[in-house]
Amino acid sequence: MTEKTFAGYCVKCNELGYLMDTDEWNREIGLEIAKEEEIAMTDKHWEVIDWLRDQCKQEVALSVRKVGKSGVVDIKGFYQLFPKGPLKTASKIAGIPKPVSCI
Amino acid sequence: MKQILILGAGTSGTMMSTHLRKALRKDLWDITIVDQEETHYYQPGFLFLPFDTYKPSQLKRKVDEFIPKGVNLIREKINRVDKENDKVLLQNDTEIPYDILIIATGCNIAPQEIEGMEGEQWYKSIFDFYTFEGSLNLRDKLRTWKGGKLVVHISEMPIKCPVAPLEFAFLSDEFFTKKQMREEVEITYVTPMSGAFTKPVATKELNYLLEEKNIKIVSDFNIEKVDAENNKILDYGGQEVVYDLLVTVPTNVGDAMIERSGFGDELNYVPTDKETLQSKVKDNIFVIGDATNLPSSKAGSVAHFQSEILTKNILSFIDQKPLKEAFDGHSNCFIETGFNKALLIDFNYTQEPVKGTFPIPGIGPLRLLKETRLNHWGKKAFRWIYWNILLKGRPIPFVSNHMKLGGKIINKQ
After folding, report:
1. Partner-chain residue, chosen from B157, B198, B413, that has the shortest CB–CB distance to A1
2. A102 an active-site residue?
3. Tell me, which fold does domain B111-251 have in CATH?
4. Domain range spanning residue A71?
């Protein structure tokens, strides 16, 4: 675990840069992480981030296909918004855990 | 008379019928279980059938054998749940009213979710091993296959038994080595996750396995379609993987009955409280095993641990008391690594798999997250345990519903 400062907020991150405590997140932090990931955030990006955070609060497992069925964005659109591993990148910006399997 | 209705006579439903029949008075409670299937399959065996390790007959028993006396078994397709009126409609237009409903309808593969997967090449060069039929067809294919590019592939998470595809890759390495044709087979493991292992300790301890067994890995692969004409799979990000033999785990979805009932999520899983196992649909509906949307693994061991917790909570519900028992996400799995060795993992919602001793702290005899022969024999013995202990609702010695920290080596940060 390390501590990182985004937009003046000090937050706990794991070794891959994912926030450890999703409650420490705010939009300014999300915007800073997005810059590191070279993503220029638009309203559509935020809509996806809000949906992911909402799903995370409900404690359900996420998958790319599930995002595609969300009604917020289809899978092609999700890839356009967050190229290369969209769920990984979007989860990082959203301040939610990286998608994992059981081992 | 009051009625408990259980939908599904698989691992979860069978165990619930046994637990509840023991716990409830016969003069007060009727218990009915509905399932259209006649055969109860030992599903962990589907991993071994393609390699001729088990005979088909070793994986099949009659559903009736495991339903206790005093429980009504109805063999009929379920149409839907009418939650407003507390009744279930069957395909033959019968209606069954209930006081308490338990949904244990599991999950199934849905190859139709991926474009091009279930076409002409299905069971010719494209196979699943999550169904009896798929596993048996794959066995026949492997008996005569001359080698080439073997691609072991996961379409998307969550899937039943998340480690099975990895075990399939390891066992393939052994199988082709023993057939003296390993050099003619290129094994590639394709996953939508960031790697074959995703948890920090497992990644550190187990990454050597892929290299040692010469298994290539393609990660972050979110399949868009199968191009069966040109023998390749394509992902949304533009990656392509060519195969001669594709062994895939298609998208897993909950039973279509849940969709017809109008309360499933995007993949037909029932929204469920992750601790009490009460559904978020209605108070008198409970959910267990693969049918839930819980962030736990979809596995028989999970269903086993859940069944004892759910039984206590249902008894509390009947007594109009708070549901106190909380499921912690406990899961316990053997992972075959080939050549008569296996790993064992024991974890829950918050504790990732780590090294240590199991089930008796400091003694074992099993070792966690380490390849041993004894773990392999544990996995082989599990078939007997499944038929004789697990399904009959008996506790497994030394293994509790809640995960124990004792015996685990936990690196505190």
Report:
1. B413
2. yes
3. FAD/NAD(P)-binding domain (3.50.50)
4. 2-94
